[in-house]
Amino acid sequence: MSAQIPIAVRNRVSDRAKETLDVVAKFVEEECIPADAVFDAQIGVGDARWEGHPQIIESLKAKARALGLWNMFFPKGHYKESPGFTNLEYGLMAEWLGKSRVASEAVNCAAPDTGNMEVLAKYGNDAQKAQWLKPLMEGEIRSAFLMTEPQVASSDARNIEMKIERDGNDYVLNGQKWWSSGAGDPRCKIYIVMGKSDPQDKDPYRQQSVILVPADTKGVTIHRMLSVYGYDDAPHGHGHISFHNVRVPAGNLVLGEGRGFEIIQGRLGPGRIHHAMRSIGASERALEWMLMRINDPRKTTFGKQLREHGVILEWVAKSRLEIDAARLIVLNAAIKMDEFGPKAALTEIAQAKVLVPQMALTVIDRAVQAFGGAGVSQDTPLANMWAQIRTLRLADGPDEVHLQQMGRNENKRGKAVAVKIAGQQAKTEELMKEYKIQKAELGSNIQHSKL
């Protein structure tokens, strides 16, 4: 809540945002977290898991709208659709949303709809906004983003093969996609699809386009829903989908041919930071569960409560340090986005995208260990939280891609720092002569040691 805003950023948070943050925290703690188990119970069993959605969601959405908690993710100053909060302010709110399975959807800030709404708001034309953005913003429908393909290494988006070919007043799509998150939900009415429209373009970053495909278009087949460490995430789901001569109007193309990379970079940057924000909240909840367990008087080992074992308190201390440090990385990226836009904040976003899920997995794993067998069962939220956050090390670009880019950027300083250090050493030599100090030679053990 607002009293816990880090002092380093507090003066950047408006009074209105602080008040809203308190409302978000109360809504999540008192309404959403208790509703998580109801959500699971209402999903149903068998095929029914994919035929509807838990009604508890609609009740929560009505409560959220009455509280003024809706579409907070559109950043102030970057979208006319914004309710007036900065990325920093929404980041503090999203942390609370990350503590509950249902909270993000309850306030219409759930992936992949957030990123898809940003695509339509930023790049869509008036007709596309009227047909798809408006009902998404109202929470009437849901959407999916189709980029990854099973037959290629999609971490390099230049490999994407789905064909998008012009035929008169239409485009025809052929290919397959997977990890199409949200495609299982019967409310999913629109796919935002990336494919290759001009494979002959000499610029590999101009070969791709993004197009809108209604989910009920002829030739679209959902083959299966992929599981995440055994969880199928019904009714949301992660679909494996094929397109066979799927024909959509040319007016469904977003922005223009060859603009695909521009669009996905504009989409994935904010999406990465949103995931990181929510992961901070998941980490906080895992720490809370660990604290509950280690202070449970019924759970003793070797004559002591868990909190009385030194290693356990060390876990608690490390978790607190790691969460607080990671939060500052996230908020720093949010500030950079607010001031200069997502493109200028790619390094800061990548830092958060890589660091935060790894931190969250570590904290959750400690909580699992504290619970023992219960920690890996359905009796706590920990196992599901771990599975969901583990996917974030792959989603929106695997860690290795971001680390490679960050490493390349950091290494650009190599020549400059070598020159700087050489200059410092030369200055040291001058000072040695000025003060008539004999330079000590390296010890013989060091000089002749073989590394």
**Percentage of residues in DSSP E strands:** 5-15%
The number of helical elements comes to 13
Taken in chain order, the helices and strands follow as: HHHHHHEEEEEEEHEEHHHHHH
Strand count: 9
* Major sheet: 4 strands, antiparallel
Coarse structural class: alpha+beta
- Tell me the span between the first and last alpha carbons: 53 Å
What is the 3D shape? globular
Question: Level of helix content?
Answer: 40-55%
Uncertain runs: 446-451
The spatial strand order of the largest sheet comes to 2-3-7-6
Rg, alpha carbons: 25 Å
Give the rounded overall mean pLDDT: 94
Domain Acyl-CoA dehydrogenase/oxidase C-terminal: 258-409
Domain Acyl-CoA oxidase/dehydrogenase middle: 144-246
GO cellular component, one term: cytoplasm
GO molecular function: acyl-CoA dehydrogenase activity; flavin adenine dinucleotide binding
Question: How would you portray this structure in words?
Answer:
Belongs to the acyl-CoA dehydrogenase family. Residues 144-246 form the Acyl-CoA oxidase/dehydrogenase middle domain. Residues 16-140 form the Acyl-CoA dehydrogenase/oxidase N-terminal domain. GO terms for molecular function: acyl-CoA dehydrogenase activity; flavin adenine dinucleotide binding. The protein has a four-stranded antiparallel β-sheet with strand order 2-3-7-6, with no helix packed on it. A three-stranded mixed β-sheet has the order 1-4-5. Strands 8-9 form a two-stranded antiparallel ribbon. The chain contains 13 helices and nine strands. α1 (15-43) runs parallel beside α3 (87-97), α3 (87-97) packs across α7 (260-294) and α3 packs antiparallel against α8 (310-340). The chain is globular. The longest helix is centred in the middle third of the chain and has 35 residues, at 260-294. It has helices at residues 15-43, 56-66, 87-97, 103-106, 113-123, 126-137, 260-294, 310-340, 346-371, 382-390, 399-411, 414-434, 444-448, and strands at residues 142-146, 163-167, 170-181, 188-196, 208-214, 220-225, 238-249, 300-301, 304-305.
